[in-house]
Amino acid sequence: MKEKRPPLYLITGIIIGLLVGILISRVILPVRYTDTSPDTLSAAQKEIYRALIARTYLYEGDAARAFTRLALLGGTNSGNDLVAQAQQMVAENGDTLSAKGLALLAGAMTDPKQVITPLSNAQFAFTPELPTVTNAAPTNVKTQTAIPPTSTPFATYTPRPTATPKPTQGAPYQLVGEPKQVCDTKSGRSLLMVYVYDSKGDGVSGVQIEITVTDGGSSYFFTGLYPEISSGYADYEMVAGIIYNLRVGSGGDLITGLEAPQCPAGDGNAYTGSLELKFKQSE
Amino acid sequence: MRRSLIGFLLAILLGLAAGLFYGWVINPGPVKNGTISSLRADFQTDYVLMVAEAYPNETDTAAAVTLLQQVNTKDPRQIVQNALLTAQQLGYSEADLQSLKGLQARLMNWEGAQ
Predict the structure, then answer these.
(1) What is the rounded CA–CA span in Å between residue B95 and residue A152?
(2) What pLDDT does residue A221 have?
(3) What secondary structure, in 3-state letters, does A179-233 show?
(4) Which string of DSSP letters, residue by residue, matches B88-99?
(5) What ipTM did this prediction achieve?
(6) Radius of gyration of chain A (CA)
(7) What is the rounded distance in angstroms from the CA atom of residue B79 to the CA atom of residue B104?
(8) What is the pTM of this model?
(9) Burial of A179 from C-beta contacts in 10 A (0-12 / 13-18 / 19+)
């Protein structure tokens, strides 16, 4: 008795076609989704979105709205995520305003009572432009009266004074006491540790700290990137032998001559320690 | 021989159709690696609103355009116009609408200066 089987070439053809079809539909020409939500964005696009949320927060000062927008991105969106992105942006010399917004948002997560003064938006005034009347037959028309339009929202744009980029207003931050040497062998790093407090003694996040060195180079960093230490904490890694100048906020005094201290080690040698500076807003 | 070849080709086509149906319809894969351009209109509107609010100055317009190009690379002003219409339909506040109108005005000036 002869068993009847389907021809092998047919099975082979179907399998080849099936594999090619799956390859095309999943890899080469995958389904392109539309009408998606922000949580489906790629990691890179989420970073763009998150940075924009943070920057908008600086101008709106609406933490609840910012958190709602962050929630749309899905995932944890913890303060650490925001801090990590802010640090990355600062390291890459990216948008400092967005980095500052991220730091402030991270601070708002740990301290829900935190309130910022929104950056003032430029104001726009729309002056309706009178339409130009052309006379098609000037001999027939003696006078022409321009009729003001009822709705010409974008006829002209009158720029007003530019926004003042000051997220918080108030008295400048002043150094409390003298810079304190911190000799800590555990960290293995030489840090310029800055704590910024308001007049009530609460840490203030999002404060810009400017570091300059004697050769003219300068860089910026912000408080609030380490909310687990303090919302008003920021640090900068020093290099031994370089003298730094530091200014907290835009109106603070310039603290000059900051240098990594040499700490005595147990074996008679010395190692480079850290400096701790505390600033407080005057009453 | 010829019959076998035709059968083989038909089998490939049948498998191909089944594979495409599976990958595109039955199991199209998770929604991931999306782009801002593929967001739903209301999310895009909120995105454009954020651009308007976060870049409120004339000097910011180039940066705002770069971000708007994430939505669509063609016409930034049309993107804002669409957002404005959607915002009106969704009942955005007057302040938000003014922000969008301000961005539209800045784009007009910016395009005029180009």
Answers:
(1) 18
(2) 77
(3) EEEECCCCCCCCEEEEEEECCCCCECCCCEEEEEECCCCEEEEECCCCCCCCCCE
(4) HHHT--HHHHHH
(5) 0.85
(6) 30
(7) 9
(8) 0.61
(9) buried
Q: How far apart are CA A185 and CA A257, in angstroms?
A: 23
Closest Cα in chain B to A6: B7
Confirm or reject contact between A147 and chain B (CB < 8 A): no
Residues of chain A below pLDDT 50: 122-167
Min Cα distance A41 → chain B (Å) is: 4
Tokens of A43: 């990691």
Q: Which residue has the tokens 């301000």?
A: B102
Neighbours of A87 (CB within 10 A): 17
Residue in chain A nearest B19 by alpha carbon: A21
Alpha-carbon span A156 to B109, nearest angstrom: 9
- Residues A226-254: b if buried by 16+ CB within 10 A, e if exposed: bbeebbbbbbbebeeeeebebbbbeebee
Contacts of A162 in chain B (CB under 8 A): 57, 59
Enter the DSSP assignment of A172.
P
Mean of pLDDT values over B58-72? 92
Which residues, in sequence order, are CB contacts of A213 under 8 Å at separation 6+? A242, A243, A244, A245
pLDDT greater than 80 at residue B84: yes
Tens digit of each residue's pLDDT (9 = 90 or more) over A63-104: 889 989 998 888 766 777 888 888 888 888 778 889 989 988
DSSP A9: H
Which residue among B43, B57, B101 places its CB closest to the CB of A122? B57
Helices (H), A119-162: none
pLDDT at A120: 63
Contacting residues of A for B44, CB less than 8 Å apart: none
Give Cβ neighbours of residue A191 (< 8 Å, ≥ 6 apart): A182, A235, A236, A237, A238, A274, A275
A279 SS3 class: strand
